[in-house]
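Repro:
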Amino acid sequence: MKMPLLFLRERLAWIGFFVFLILILNVLFSLDVGLVGVSIWYLNIIMLVTFALFLLWRYIREVGQLRDFLGNVDSRLDEPHTRSLALSPFQNAYYRKIEDVFYEKDAELNHTKVQLQEYSDELLAWVHEVKAPLTTINLMLEHIEDLALRRKLETEWLRLHLLVDQQLHQTRLASIEKDNYLTEIELRTVVYKEIRAMQAWCLEKDIGFDVAELNEIVLTDTKWIAFIVRQLLSNAIKYSPKNSEIFIFTEVDTSSATLLHIKDNGIGIRKEDLPRIFQKSYTGTAGRESAQSTGMGLYLAQKIAHKIGVHISVQSVVGEGSIFTLRFPLQNEYTKLTGR
């Protein structure tokens, strides 16, 4: 019903002019005594029926043209197809202008995509170049005899390494579908590896880990899930007080899905911050008190988790700490994920 109303609204000038003519004719027939014998009602009916048929014909024709045009609006029509639309000279002028604008915008968009891809490739190359000297520096740290100095330097090296690693995965995020390989892994392998990588930072803050057996086998991407665990562990260490413990354990929910919990006894997250902690560059109240916070870790973790079908949730109480939970999808959920 919407289309006929739009058509009639577009043709209000026609309808108004026709009504004006009808009124003029009726006035003339009333005033001119020479036309007294002519039936004005008969003439009115004939003209109304003729005008209604004309409007119906124009409606069918123009709606058909519009649907044909909208069906091909995503591409430039060739000349034979354009002629088949039977556009009026004015419609053709409008169409050509719109087509030119779309073509220019498509060219600008493609140019921007090329520039963005080049920038992404250059950034990725730069990150790989930076990783080489970082590896060398890490090896050199082993030769420092002053234990306190070495631990301090190892902690700062780890923070720099995490920032470079974060940038690397952020750059690769756009093409994660091409770099995603699902395989069965034991959670213990991933978690223990990431804990060992954080050893220098944990020693500096005297933070220990209470880790369950973690014998569960999950189907996921090893590299990307390791990055997610790394971000959650680094957050737990960052906001935990000295001489505290971080608890890592698993459970199975009512749908038989595996849940991995990472619990700290840190400062916690305020209630008003919870809905926004996964937003890009959002540091929250705690982040504003720490120069180390970039607001990107949880954002990237959530984005990557969504891509590989893992769900991240959090429970937190200010002053009591936070529990971040990773829910690994079931086999049938992974089938939907890989099939989309």
